[in-house]
Write a structure and sequence with these properties.
Number of domains: 1
Distance between the termini: 33 Å
Bound molecules: FE2/S2 (inorganic) cluster
Structural class: mainly beta
CATH class: Mainly Beta
Strand content: 35-45%
Radius of gyration: 15 Å
Largest sheet: 4 strands, antiparallel
Shape: globular
Oligomer: single chain
Strand order of the largest sheet: 1-2-11-10
Length: about 140
């Protein structure tokens, strides 16, 4: 893991991006975890060459195992109980082995913006989470 103090930053289209790993860390069809900060553990995937970045925490039981999930086309299946999510937008698409899951389609993975340049992967700095009592 890249220590926080060593992460390079750059500005792209007015947004700050932080280098989170090397390009070679993320290989086709396998998840790679970046522990960005206390609020953002990110699962990176490469699907037909394209990068995908989603939260590593499953919205079902909060298991931090999305990066270890089974990847098929543009989806990942949580290894715990089979909830499956589209990697491009994080949307829940079903439960492995169930035809009509009784789960709200509003369940989803957070999606992050990443770019690849200079043999590295850069994450657009995520918004700070607002705790409800601060609103
Ligand atoms: S924790 Fe992911 S499906 Fe249950």
């Amino acid at each position: 893991m890249m220590p926080m103090g060593e992460r390079r930053k750059r500005t792209i289209d007015g947004h700050v991006y932080v280098q989170i790993c090397k390009s070679t860390d993320v290989i086709e069809g396998k998840g790679f975890v970046v522990d960005y900060d206390l609020d953002h553990e990110i699962a990176l995937f490469r699907i037909k060459g394209a990068l995908r970045a989603v939260s590593n925490s499953c919205p079902h039981k909060r298991a931090s195992m999305i990066a270890q999930g089974h990847v098929e086309h543009d989806t990942v299946r949580c290894p715990m109980h089979g909830w499956t999510f589209r990697l491009s937008d994080g949307c829940f698409v079903g439960i492995f082995g169930q035809h009509a899951p009784s789960v709200s389609g509003r369940q989803r993975l957070d999606v992050y913006t990443v770019v690849e340049d200079d043999d590295a992967i850069w994450l657009r700095e995520p918004e700070e989470r607002v705790v409800s009592w601060m609103e």
